[in-house]
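Q: Convert this sequence to structure tokens.
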Amino acid sequence: AANALQEEWDLGVGSAVRLDLPAHWRSLYWALATWSVGATVVLADRPGAGALPDPATAPVDLLVTDDADAAAAAGGPAVLVTLAALARQSGSPVPADAMDEARELSTYADQFAAWDEPEGQDPAVRTTAGTTAYEDVVPRRDWPAQARVHVAGADLAELLEVALAAWAVDGSVVLSRGPEPAAGRAARLEAEGVTLDLAGS
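A:
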């Protein structure tokens, strides 16, 4: 994904990428790709996400979305993401200016070398709550080393914070999406090796 950002759209330090995606593992690698090229993650407004940037007032260089209509209305380059894990192409018509992530992303190289590096004070994340610099983007949490953190019902901003905090202690994240059945919950978390449950009981 980082190679695609550089090679397809020449994105780097000073560029902005709007992630119009739910809290999902694909959203995490698009955020990491954006930071890998030194660009800014802009979080888009989604149901339940709170007041986040209005597309009309927060111009970006690329939209990454799972909504074909949003990709078509972007008025510029876009990536259409298919959330299904094994999808080989989008199940929706792909607009002319959009990349079909499921079909095209694997054509880019696995190894990555950034063309430029951001400074600590460069913007890493932008929301209407403000801008977070690269030097401040990793939250400080008092978590044990190699914590395996369970989170559920998170919006993308929260998921990014949890993931960065977990990775900072060499940990990992278990994400539950949608309603979580109560039956067998403790056994599921144990099977996943969860050591820190942020989703509660």
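Residues 47-53 have pLDDT under 50 and may be disordered.
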